[in-house]
Backbone:
């Protein structure tokens, strides 16, 4: 199975092929391929991107297929020109997605590039008519795109690091009938559902993220964290909170 990053590149290439075929409209999909057609059986084009100049992207098509696809699409151009436009469309999509500079460099006719992950781009022209374009994605290009994607995500996370979130502590909860709430006066005591030796909940943005013990820090209450709530448990707690049925009681929490 092809790596997820390479499969995404193949999917974006399929979209670039569809755009390069306009105004002829066709559905284009990508699937992994074991073998590309031999050099004597196909037309091939290799073109690197500025983001990974050492790893050219390769596109190919069977020699007998290209005239048929040209006629179906209503255009007359060499495969090299079409493939170059596909690579250009792909470069623009990558630049927009990753917010980086990415342009297609000079390309040339060539046999299939190795080593590379091979894909077949299936063009559905309608009426049961299909054509195949082959793509070879070099590891250097896949690595470069993955690195840029990681840098973009890291930069996006950095923007969030200074965002302030509300933090609160829950000592426990209980449910009270309305009559007991109405009878409440100064000095009334409310028993919560938590033992005195149990940890309290640390709540961030209405989500329990940790538990710990209450301490005093320079005259102020504080929490010494003893456990971090797992992502799975947080999801379960939120689900329980959303799905709780309405009760004819008043909920109190401290």
Residues:
């Amino acid at each position: 199975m092809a790596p997820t990053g390479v499969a995404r590149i193949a999917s974006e290439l399929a979209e670039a092929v569809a755009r390069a075929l306009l105004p002829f409209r066709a559905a284009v999909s990508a699937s992994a391929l074991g073998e590309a057609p031999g050099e004597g059986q196909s037309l091939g084009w290799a073109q690197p991107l500025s983001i990974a100049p050492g790893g050219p992207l390769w596109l190919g098509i069977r020699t007998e297929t290209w005239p048929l696809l040209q006629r179906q699409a209503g255009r007359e151009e060499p495969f090299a020109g079409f493939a170059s436009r596909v690579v250009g469309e792909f470069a623009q999509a990558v630049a927009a997605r990753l917010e980086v500079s990415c342009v297609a460099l000079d390309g040339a006719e060539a046999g299939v590039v190795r080593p590379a992950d091979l894909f077949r781009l299936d063009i559905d022209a309608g009426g049961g008519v299909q054509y195949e374009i082959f793509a070879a994605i070099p590891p250097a290009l896949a690595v470069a795109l993955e690195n840029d994607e990681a840098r973009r995500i890291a930069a996006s996370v950095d923007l969030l690091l200074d965002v302030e979130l509300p933090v609160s502590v829950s000592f426990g909860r209980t449910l009270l009938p309305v009559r007991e709430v109405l009878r409440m006066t100064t000095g009334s005591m409310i028993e919560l559902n938590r033992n005195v030796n149990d940890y309290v909940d640390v709540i961030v943005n209405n989500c329990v993220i940790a538990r710990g013990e209450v301490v005093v820090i320079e005259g102020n209450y504080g929490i010494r964290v003893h456990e971090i709530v797992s992502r799975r448990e947080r999801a379960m707690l939120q689900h329980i909170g959303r799905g709780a049925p309405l009760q004819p009681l008043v909920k109190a929490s401290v």
About this structure: Helices lie at 4-21, 65-73, 79-98, 139-160, 178-182, 231-243. The CA atoms of residues 2 and 32 lie 7 Å apart.
